[in-house]
Amino acid sequence: MSSPETTSFSDLALSAPVLKAIQSVGYEQPSPIQAASIPHLLNGEDLLGVAQTGTGKTAAFALPLLSNIDVKTKAPQVLVLAPTRELAIQVAEAFKSYASQMKGFQVLPIYGGQDMRGQLKQLERGPQVVVGTPGRVMDHLRRGSLKLDALKCVVLDEADEMLRMGFIDDVEWILEHTPEQRQVALFSATMPGPIKKVADTYLRNPKEVRIASATQTGSHIKQSYLIVNGFERKLDAITRILEAQDFDAMIIFVRTKTATAELAEKLEARGYSASALNGDMNQQLRERTINRLKNKQLDIVVATDVAARGIDVERVSHVLNFDIPYDSEAYVHRIGRTGRAGRDGSAILFVAPREKRLLFSIEKNTRQKIEPMELPSGKEVSSRRVEQFKQLLTDTLESQPNLDYFFEILSEYSAEHDRSAEDIACALAYLHQLERPLEVKDSPKGRKEKGFTVVEENRQSRSGDSDQMMRYRIELGRDQQVGPGDIVGAIMNETDLHKNDIGHIKLHGDHSTVDLPLNLPKELISKLKTLTVRNLPINISEVGPAKREQRQPGKRKSAPGAHNKAPRKKPRKAKKD
């Protein structure tokens, strides 16, 4: 199903406070899934949304549900189920941002590994929105600390991921303990049989929204990413990249209109020819800015997705994603601004540590690997600055200016102070470079400077290389109805480990083993020791270096998290209050 094209959020019947919050952060136009979903959710209809991660679906359900929230009612009215702690926090923060103009609004993320006493205290205050992982939501429902009497809507976010992680039975248990008269929105990238069954069972006459993503990126565009967080740290990283790489013209993409002006001003202050391009500019000013870029009167344009549509400037050699797009399709359109007319192009993506899921989603949807890049070193930047300084001297001398007056001054100084011409030249060079030093040094570690650390990742999957893995024992196994999906889900839900970090899992009667990367940080080991699976402590302990698994001929090795477990019983249904 598709919806009529909308040009702005104001075309949708969102509440005034929500619309004001959207405008204050500078969002310009709803994404396809937002335009298609918001009207149905505003009308109280159940919704089945099929869309990849990174299509803007959080706003697709958060904006209309917030518009229907009664802030005077201090009780959960919206319950969002998310597969991981990371996603629960991200969704909760999105709700908080979109509700910035709603006085008295509260949102609470709840997940395992977090202090239960703190969650109980927060629940007593009556948040209108609760975002949680299935296991912790079940804990609170059993305790009676999470009451759903005033619940209006349940959102299942990334339902197929919850299925893959072994949570689908828990999701069904939770749905059975919600009021009969409630709205349900289910979002999933795919629609496997068990998810379709959930939709058929718990959704009433749902409206269906399917969003197809553009997946083609130019093969002649070099794609790379850098892990960096925060506006100032990103600004420092841009400066190093601009200094160390040859570029003709660049488009820098940000999410909001306000960010275009702020970043353009910062770059201009650092000596670059930059200008903002956003939806607040009239067509005449927009065309003038693009023409300046074409005519080499401007080198950098800082733009939003909407404002940059239709830009076709051959000299754009680089696209830099200052903010990672939520929409994979937007990423494809962004990097398509470079590599025009068959030329080579470069696309750089800034990724905050907590945005790695969006990075993996873009790679999956575009079917292309984005390579990690290193921030140019101080030595590289110094080399470029010295080259430019020498070229400045050469250009000045070759232009043959009249230097007689300056020669007399310096000859006089040399005689008065007994200083050589070389000493005087060095002093003048030193004075010239005070504001932009020729020598740029890294910290002792070489990667940390001006308050930001560049994380250099090895993005290759480590799950298949036993030489880099450590084996751990978990005191739960088939006797406790535990399967690989439960173990993978618990680890991913409560730590920053990715599924590629989780190696071979072997189930036994009273215990299991799992292979994890070598040299895990102490903090992460401590976190692993607090994990529970099916409300039972895992009591994890180190066994030793992982041994390479020998596969028998004709037998396939199960992928991590595959559902190759013995049938498990559904959780016993608690009586409804």
UniProtKB/TrEMBL annotation:
GO cellular component term of the entry, any: ribosome
Top-level class of the enzyme under EC nomenclature: hydrolase
Organism's domain of life?
Answer: Bacteria
Q: Which GO terms describe its biological process?
A: cellular response to cold; ribosomal large subunit assembly; RNA catabolic process
Boundaries of every Helicase ATP-binding domain copy: 38-209
Motif extent (Q motif)? 7-35
Cross-referenced Pfam families? DbpA (PF03880), DEAD (PF00270), DeaD_dimer (PF25399), Helicase_C (PF00271)
The segment(s) forming the Helicase C-terminal domain are 234-381
List the EC numbers from the record: 3.6.4.13
**What are the protein's GO molecular function terms?**
ATP binding; hydrolase activity; RNA helicase activity; RNA strand annealing activity
Q: Compositionally biased, Basic residues: which spans?
A: 565-577
| Record field: catalytic activity | ATP + H2O = ADP + phosphate + H(+)
Indicate the segments forming the DEAD-box RNA helicase Q domain, all copies: 7-35
Q: Tell me the segments the record calls region Disordered.
A: 541-577
Which keywords fit this entry according to its UniProt record?
Answer: ATP-binding, Cytoplasm, Helicase, Hydrolase, Nucleotide-binding, RNA-binding, Stress response
What SMART domains does its record include?
DEXDc, HELICc
Q: Report TM segments.
A: none
Q: Where in or outside the cell?
A: Cytoplasm
Similarity remark = Belongs to the DEAD box helicase family. DeaD/CsdA subfamily.
HAMAP family for the chain: DEAD_helicase_DeaD
What is the stated purpose of this protein? DEAD-box RNA helicase involved in various cellular processes at low temperature, including ribosome biogenesis, mRNA degradation and translation initiation.
According to UniProt, the name of this protein is ATP-dependent RNA helicase DeaD
Q: Which organism is it from?
A: Dasania phycosphaerae
Q: Per UniProt, what is the name of the gene that codes for the protein in this document?
A: deaD
